[in-house]
Structure formats: C-alpha cells, structure tokens
Amino acid sequence: MHVLWIRERLAAISSVGHRPPGIDRQILALAVPALGALVAEPLFVLVDSAVVGHLGTAPLAGLALASTILMTVIGLCVFLAYATTAAVARRLGAGDRTGALQVGVDGMWLALGLGLVLAAATWLSAPWLIGALGASDEVAQQAVTYLRWSAPGLPGMLLVLASTGALRGLLDTRTPLVVAATGAVVNAVLNVVLVYGAGMGIAGSGLGTALTQLGMAVALTVVVVHGARGSGAQLRPAAGGIWANARAGTPLFVRTLSLRLAILLTVWVATGLGAVELAGHQVVAAVWGLAAFALDALAIAAQALVGHALGAADVPRVRALLRRTLQWGVGAGAALGLLVGGLSWVYVPLFTTADDVRAAAVAALVVAAVTMPMAGWVFVLDGVLIGAGDGRFLAWAGMATLVVYVPFALAVREAAPPGAAGLAWLWAAFAGVFMLARAVTTGWRARGTAWMVTGA
C-alpha cells in the first residue's frame, strides 16, 4: 500500500477531535463507510457461489456446507473487532493515542495467534466437521476440499477483524471500506483464474479466498503498524496486553454465541415445519441479514463515538449520542420495514418460482418488517453498550434472552399450522419475542448510569 496514502489516512485520523462536527455528520461519516465494508464481505460468499455453481451440483452443495462452518468460526470471533473498537476509542477519547494504538496492536497479535490455531484445527478436523453435517460422499469430498484450501485464510480474516476494530476505534471506517471493496474485486478475479484458468476446481475457489483474506490483512496491518510506529507504541507482542484483549473479548464471545444459538434454533424449527417453510425461511433470513447490515453500520458508529466520548469523560455527549443514534436506528428500521414488507411481493419471486414458498416468505417478511424499528433500537443499543465496554452485561443479557426465546420457538415447532401461517408464527417468535427481549434488557441498562464508566 502506498506510503503517501497511509500518511493521508493517519493524518485524517489524528485530526479527529480538533473541531468535532455535529453528531449527525459524525454518525453518517462513520456509518456509511462501515455499511460499505459490511456489504463487501458477503460478496465473497456470493462470488464463490457463482463461480463454483458452474462446476456442478455437488461442488455447490459442498461449498454451502464448508462456507457455513467457516462463517460460524469467523462469526464467533467477531469480538476481536468489537472489543478492540471499544478499547481503542476509549483511549483515544482520553487523549492517549499511543495507548489506543497499543491496544490495537495487542488485539492484532491475539487475532493472529487465534487464527493460526483455528486454521490448523479446521484443516485437521475438516472431514469430521463435514461428516457431522450428514453430507453424501461426493458432496462431502467437495466440502472438505474447499474447507482445507480456505483454512489458511483464517489468520488473515481474524487479523482483518482486529485491525478493522482498531481503525474504527480511531474513527476511521473509510480505510476498511477501501480494503474490503478491493478485496471483493481481487477475490472474484482469483476465483475465476484459479478455478477455470488453472483448472483447480473448488480448491481454486478456496485458495483464492484465502489469498485475498491474507492480502487484506497485510494491507490493514501496514496502516495500523505505521500509525503505531508514529505514536511510539510497541510492535512486539506483550503478554499482558494480549491477555487483556482476550479477557475483554470473552463476554462479547458469549453474547455472540447466544445470538448464533438463537439463529440455529430458528433454522431447526423451520426444518421441522417442512420443506416449504424451510425454503421460505431461507429467503426471509437472507433479506433480514441484508437489512441487519444497514442497522449494524449505525451500531458501529455508536460503538466508536460512545467509546470516544466516555474516554473523554464527556457524559452529556454520551447521552446526546445515545439519544440521537437511537433516533437514527428506529428511523432507519422503519424505512427498511416499509421496503422489506411493502415490496416483498415484488422481490420474493426472484428467489423462487414455487407459489407456496413465495406465499410463506411474503407472510413472514411482513411480520419481520413490522419489527424492524425495534430491531434498529436493539442494534444501536448493542453498539452503545459495546462501545462502553459493557460486555459482561451483554453476555448475561444475551443468555437470558435466549432462555426467553427457547420455549416460544419450541411452541411454534409443536403447534404452528403448516405453510405460510407456520413460518409467520416462527418469525413472530424470532423477530418479535427474541428481539423484544433484547430491546427490554438493553433498554433497561441504557436508562441507568452503571455502563457509563468514564476515562481510559
């Protein structure tokens, strides 16, 4: 990466705080690039699917299984980004730029070590992991091949999470956007060249993705390291700093685990309802996930801005940020709800030609759309509390909301009617009950002051 561009980015970061713009401008300045980076990541899976899909049914089915495992591993490690963002923003707000970059460097060392362990474990256990999903021999062989060729990219992907978290904490979401967008293009080119040009088949897709992830990690690491050197932060691994990052990330790991378990439970219930309901659920989940990226971008802005304000001990600004980001979240959720529900009959046919699946998906999407404003509230409050470093509460609240959701999900599986009504009831349970439980717990916490710990 060009040194001049790096200096320009770091100069922009260092200028933050001299003349702070209005809250709305700060929110948008962070949220819009963050949204771009978030959307760029799923393009990896879409490109892989498009390229591998032309190899045949077995390779595409194998990719579906392998990518599910990889996305689960990466999803559970998202705490590397969240914990780093909060810690770096807090130190920057306290005026300790050197300490902020030191936290970022320590988080990246943790990501590298964890990534190497997970890459080795994934490579070695690939046949067992795929076998546990019950795939046929031909599909299993394709899945294991992809999983093993892509596993070396895990250290890179985890480094991307940690370095992105560090840059977000420094109030820079543009650099991760540039790197993510570039990576999406490079990944597409490498996949085509390796799969078809080099004749590697599905192995080429896995290798292309791994190489892209490693390249993105190098690019982001260069930016963070350059900033660390300029501020006087140490680059060598420090056991104390790495351990502190691990401790800070553990509650967020538990919180993410509760979300993943809720999603897996929802898929299990949809499977039990029948093939039509499961197919419709896949459509609804895909649309919900895309809407969640937009709301998560606001949560990322809340993380960085709240952490920065708490570090500066500016409690009135924290309250102002909380109020305004919640307004943005609810408003964005309402707008997305209108699009998701109001236009469902237009875009659902793009996913399926089966009339019964269409009807089920549309019914569930209308239910999900009604809950979108509440989802915006939940996502933003999540970001606020993560930015405040309130991970322990989020861990307990996550498990508590999962406990609340379980009986409702089980009731749907046992008593819901077939077809569209059954899937609508399932999404009423997930997007309604589960999200309401999250809204109540995080809203109760935000009303108090226990989470507003100021200083570095």
Automatic annotation (TrEMBL):
Compartment annotation: Cell membrane
Membrane-related topology note: Multi-pass membrane protein
Bilayer-crossing regions: 27-47, 59-88, 109-130, 150-170, 177-198, 210-228, 257-279, 285-306, 326-347, 359-381, 393-412, 418-437
InterPro entries: DinF-like, MATE_fam, MdtK-like
Gene Ontology molecular function, alphabetical: antiporter activity; xenobiotic transmembrane transporter activity
Ranges in a coiled coil: none
Domain of life: Bacteria
Pfam families assigned: MatE
GO cellular component: plasma membrane
Family of this protein: Belongs to the multi antimicrobial extrusion (MATE) (TC 2.A.66.1) family.
NCBIfam families, alphabetized: matE
Name this protein carries in UniProt: MATE family efflux transporter
Native organism: Cellulomonas terrae
Biological classification of the source: Bacteria, Bacillati, Actinomycetota, Actinomycetes, Micrococcales
